[in-house]
Amino acid sequence: MNNPKISSQRRNLIPRVAVASVASPLEVGADRGLQAVKKFEVLLKNAGCDVITLGEVNHPKQATRAGRKAAEEHIDALAIVPVSWFEDYLVLDMLEECNVPILLWSLPGMETGALCGTQQLTAYLRQLDASYRCVCGILEKGTTLDKAMTFLRAVSLKSRLRRAKIGLLGNHARGMTEVAVNEFALKKYIGPRIVNLDLPQLLTRAQEFSKSEALSIWQSVCEKSSRCLASEEAGIDSVKMYLAIRELVELNQLSALTVGCYPHLMGRVCLAASLLADEGIPLSCEGDINGAVGQLVLSLLTDSPTHNTDWLEPLEDGSVILTHCGSGSYSLAEKKEDITLAPVRLMDQGVCSLFPAKPGPVTLINLIPCEQGYQCAVLEGQAVSTEMVFPGNPLRVRLIKPTDRVIEWIHEQGIGHHWMAGYGHKTEEIINWSKIIKLRTVTF
Questions:
Q1: Which three-class secondary structure string do you get for 5-27?
Q2: Smallest Cα–Cα separation from 226: which of 360, 320, 135, 342?
Q3: Which residues are CB-neighbours of 32 under 8 A, at least 6 positions away?
Q4: Burial bucket for residue 405 (CB in 10 Å: 0-12, 13-18, 19+)
Q5: How do the domains of the chain map onto residue ranges?
Q6: What is the predicted pLDDT for the residue at 371?
């Protein structure tokens, strides 16, 4: 069922970074520029970056040439290694040609003045409101590289989101004002462009797919589950919806999308969400564009499908259950034998994929528009095994802080009810990203 054009939209982040050294030729340590650049390149490549070489930058002409080359390569960030004291205008001239966030990795040395030059530069960059991150030490694996990569991945996230297109089919659910999208603010602060799609046209197109084509896919879906309580007719209808939505994704080059499913399309688009998640395309519920963006953020950071959830009931042990109706990727199930295909709750139609979610470290985010543009709330916890306490994809999370205090914090901060969950602890990347784009972020 994989479509090469959709699958080519890689979910994982690969920071595209241009590497240079800076120095003033008179200073001690200036002669180690080329060696430092080569070592820095290898270090970043091995850490997962796509690296462009700029070489040594020791005078203004080199800075201008380096900046223009970086601009031509459409990089996400400049990664600069000060090997000695350097004139601040070397970096400023690069930024005039290619205005992107900067990672500064100062090499140690008592007489070199590399750290001194970096402090001198950041005093200027701060006044310019530029985005930068500074680390200091030997060019090698370890904590310093981890800090550097956290920043570079955040920069790459910024670049991916600015190019993202999010599809909207229908409207957000009535009475869920906080999931409404502010298109201007979303584009300004976070980056994605909204693509408004015609829901009646989708429904018409879905019925144009042949029963035989849909039946083949439905049988494949049934083989991946342990039990099917949904009718073949509902399965074929859900597959046709998947094919029609998938066609729109390819045609419009969407990075994510949402469908106004509640209440009339409940169950009819859930299977599409499950299948598209495995192709790197998040599909959020109830017309929540902000939720779709949140899922995209986490799927990029974790390189895996995500949960789209409501916050439900706290349990006696301090954990909390989060879930929606059953639209998760099968890869999120703890056990294949738990996967059941069944009609959606409340409306008793369509097909949902029901299973308890797998355990592991998780990051939860909620994204909503606010007076300052957009607000991102972040929580971390540990998902643990659970039973089917709700007909959906129940995710049971033990939070780092006491649940009652977290609930108070949610109400006090005015945080919405849709929480997107991704496996892995990604708060540092999210905080770095929010600082770069000037996004209001609230953490507990």
A1: HHHCCCCCCCCEEEEEEECCCCC
A2: 342
A3: 21, 83, 107
A4: exposed
A5: 4-161, 164-443
A6: 86
- Tokens representing 316? 């006696």
| Contacts by 63-68, CB closer than 8 A, 24 or more apart | 63/89, 63/90, 63/91, 63/93, 63/94, 64/93, 64/94, 64/96, 64/97, 66/18, 66/20, 66/94, 66/97, 67/93, 67/94, 67/95, 67/96, 67/97, 67/98, 68/97, 68/98
Domains 4-161 and 164-443 share a fold: no
Number of H helices, E strands in the chain: 14, 19
Q: Tens of pLDDT along 220-256?
A: 999 999 999 999 999 999 999 999 999 999 999 999 9
Q: Are 162 and 150 in contact (CB under 8 A)?
A: no
DSSP secondary structure letter of residue 32: G
Tokens of 127: 């006044």
- Please tell me the distance from the alpha carbon of residue 52 to that of residue 110, in angstroms, as a whole number: 30
CATH code: domain 164-443 is 3.40.275.10
Whether 60 shows a pLDDT value over 90: the answer reads yes
Q: Could you identify the residue written with the tokens 């097909």?
A: 351
Q: Which residues partner with 149 through β-bridges? A: none
- Encoding tokens for residue 250? 């390819």
Give the pLDDT confidence score for residue 8 in this predicted structure.
41
Structure tokens at 217: 């896919």
- Answer CATH for 4-161 from 3.40.50.300, 1.10.3720.10, 3.40.50.10940, 3.20.20.140: 3.40.50.10940
Element (H, E) at 422: strand 418-423
Cα–Cα nearest to 363, from 310, 408, 426: 426
